[in-house]
Write a structure and sequence with these properties.
350 residues; alpha/beta; Rossmann fold; 2 domains; eight-stranded mixed beta sheet; 10 helices; disordered N terminus
Length: 350
């Protein structure tokens, strides 16, 4: 009788001990978009991989460490290479993320994504999803079954960051190669090396090393919860194009069917004088001009000493946004207003 009583006490104690541990596991909504992270590669020397030959569920189930980090819910939203992602994919993804973060049972969202256009998707989410919950994007340079793939480690690191309290209210983050980078500053700088995803010169936010999550700084630009934009009000986006400047010229400019044009200018966003007149006409025809730089990460300002007077021309300078990110911000800005002064304020604050 005494033995039975002791066993009963031990079982109750064990249950009471395990319950807090189980309760500590956070719930993550994992949304897959395609890309190398869930793809397979024919051989180590081949750059070709098949999409979703290995699902995210298989990737997670094959790693005991991942299963111990969080309770994961899976949703394959798309299965496409990232160069095929368009505005309609951004909007559908953002609405899916918005739905997840407004679910009280979901603590964080992770999106797996091809690396080629990951930075644009991350910035769009950063501008349009209003939440303080962690939203993490990650990808891989080498496909999941490549012998030296970075897919599993990047996913583990993303889960560790997503479940960490310090990731709350930091905006959309990208986790790759042991680094934590803000959506505003993420950029793909290399095609093949594992450190392809890097930050602009303003620097990374922190590091991931095994179980250690170490934040050093945070972005002070408006994002997510504090953004002036909201995916709930967006069903489509105006068409915005990018023109590339080069010595003595500018790539062909579409004169119809666009609402905005980002110029990847030379140096500090400068434009050949031979094409400046054409841009002036576009601006007068309510096609908003934004000056960025083909020097990725280099800031473009309009000061008294600038060669182009943005205020006089009603142009907008892109700050340190790359041409592709300036396009994202211009699209969501034009969704709200066509006032150049208001759009200029968005580029200063977001």
């Amino acid at each position: 009788m005494l033995l039975r009583l002791c066993l009963a006490v031990c079982l109750v104690s064990l249950c009471l001990y395990q319950t807090p541990l189980q309760a500590e596991l956070k719930t993550i909504q994992l949304i897959t978009m395609g890309g190398a992270i869930t793809g397979t590669q024919k051989d180590a020397l081949s750059g070709k991989f098949k999409l979703s030959s290995r699902s995210a569920e298989t990737l997670v189930a094959g790693n005991i460490e991942i299963l111990e980090l969080a309770d994961i819910k899976f949703k394959e939203l798309y299965n496409i290479p990232s160069q095929e992602i368009q505005q309609k994919h951004w909007i559908k993804l953002a609405k899916e993320v918005d739905k997840a973060v407004n679910d009280i049972t979901i603590d964080a969202v992770i999106i797996t994504h091809g690396t080629d256009t990951l930075e644009e998707t991350a910035y769009f989410l950063n501008l349009t999803v209003k939440t303080k919950k962690p939203i993490i994007l990650t990808g891989a340079i080498r496909a999941a079954l490549h012998p030296s793939s970075d897919s599993t480690q990047n996913l583990i690191d993303a889960i560790r960051v997503a479940t960490h309290n310090d990731a709350i209210n930091k905006g959309v983050l990208v986790v790759a190669n042991g680094k934590i980078i803000s959506a505003r500053h993420i950029q793909k700088n290399h095609n093949h090396s594992l450190d392809a995803l890097e930050s602009s010169e303003l620097g990374i936010l922190g590091y991931v090393h095994n179980e250690i999550i170490d934040f050093h700084q945070a972005s002070i630009k408006k994002h997510t919860y504090y953004s002036d934009f909201d995916i709930k009000t967006i069903s489509e986006l105006p068409n915005v194009d990018i023109a590339y400047a080069y010595s003595g010229g500018l790539s062909n400019i579409k004169k119809t069917a666009i609402k905005g044009l980002v110029v990847a200018g030379v140096g500090s966003g400068n434009i050949p004088m031979t094409t400046l007149k054409e841009l002036k006409k576009l601006q007068k025809n309510n096609i908003q001009i934004v000056r960025s730089s083909r020097n990725v990460g280099a800031p473009v300002y309009s000061s008294k000493g600038s060669e182009i007077n943005d205020a006089y021309l009603n142009f907008v300078s892109a700050n340190n946004l790359s041409p592709q990110k300036a396009r994202v911000l211009l699209m969501v800005a034009l969704h709200k207003t066509s006032d150049p002064n208001k759009i200029r304020s968005y580029f200063k604050t977001h």
